[in-house]
From TrEMBL:
<protein>
    <recommendedName>
        <fullName>Ppx/GppA phosphatase N-terminal domain-containing protein</fullName>
    </recommendedName>
</protein>
<dbReference type="GO" id="GO:0016462">
    <property type="term" value="F:pyrophosphatase activity"/>
</dbReference>
<dbReference type="InterPro" id="IPR050273">
    <property type="entry name" value="GppA/Ppx_hydrolase"/>
</dbReference>
<feature type="domain" description="Ppx/GppA phosphatase N-terminal">
    <location>
        <begin position="18"/>
        <end position="304"/>
    </location>
</feature>
<dbReference type="InterPro" id="IPR043129">
    <property type="entry name" value="ATPase_NBD"/>
</dbReference>
<dbReference type="Pfam" id="PF02541">
    <property type="entry name" value="Ppx-GppA"/>
</dbReference>
<comment type="similarity">
    <text>Belongs to the GppA/Ppx family.</text>
</comment>
<feature type="region of interest" description="Disordered">
    <location>
        <begin position="308"/>
        <end position="330"/>
    </location>
</feature>
<dbReference type="InterPro" id="IPR003695">
    <property type="entry name" value="Ppx_GppA_N"/>
</dbReference>
Amino acid sequence: MQQAGVLDVGCHSALLTVQRWRPGSVLEPVFSHKVRLRLHETLDRRGRLGKAGIKSVQRGVAEAIAADPRLRLAEVFAFATSVIRDAPNREEVIARVARATGTWLQVLSGEEEARLAYVAARQWVGPEAGPLLVLDIGGGTVEVASGTGDQPRLARSLPLGARSVTRELLPGGTASSRQHLNEVRRHLRHCLSAAPGMPSAEKGDRVVACSRTFEQLARLANASGSRPRRSRRQLTLSQLGATIRLLAGVGPERRAALPGISRHRAEQSLAGALVAESLMVTCGVESVEICPWSTREGLLLERLGASRNPAGQRGYTGTGPLPHAGEETG
């Protein structure tokens, strides 16, 4: 049985995931290893990754790759998300990590991340699901994709991720007043509605939300609602409104004690909730289904041949060769 690995280097962690797949089966976990990172704490005002951040990435990549001595580097696709992709010193970071670890981090465009999230969600819901709308909130960007087949007809990426909105509009992760909160809401909805080609959900569309942001919001909303046993795999717009009021009423330290909110995401959780609400309103969505798969799983599915990819890795924007299955990443 063929296996492949993906090393996902993001703001909060470097996560190595190795999985298997065979026709007619689901992805089968083989091995995973997470190294905690806190790259947002090393960013300067321009978004450059400082020396401490670069060393943290070097350590995280080296530790993740070395975690399984049976793993061949050729099996791993290593990529960096927006915290490195959008950094002004991105090329320096990638080069220094490559020199220190032998692993060249690839960089996918936001649109390619949106496409891969759609690929993963389509495989998860199945082809019989019909028209599909996928919403994904990352740290730096928001991805939206829609379509009816294996590949999306539309894939968009906007710089409205939870970390970005926190840094620019909610310093310290808090709103100073209800007026401040509503100003952020209006700004987000204006940016989303003004973006060209934003899709609207039609009757009968399956709407799924990917990412840890949506997952944690759903866990909190269902734990604190009137029906605590309700599935954590659904999140409604009305639940989201109540969740925003809860998050806005406490600081990041107290949020970390709430159900579903992890300590390292507590500061950006309010921004994530506001972005989620604005996305749902802009796309005309009353409820989303939480999908556990996203870009990482989309990459694994394509490298394992479980999903058709006629266009190839067209969104790659980094330096160095783009590997396909069986080729080394650095």
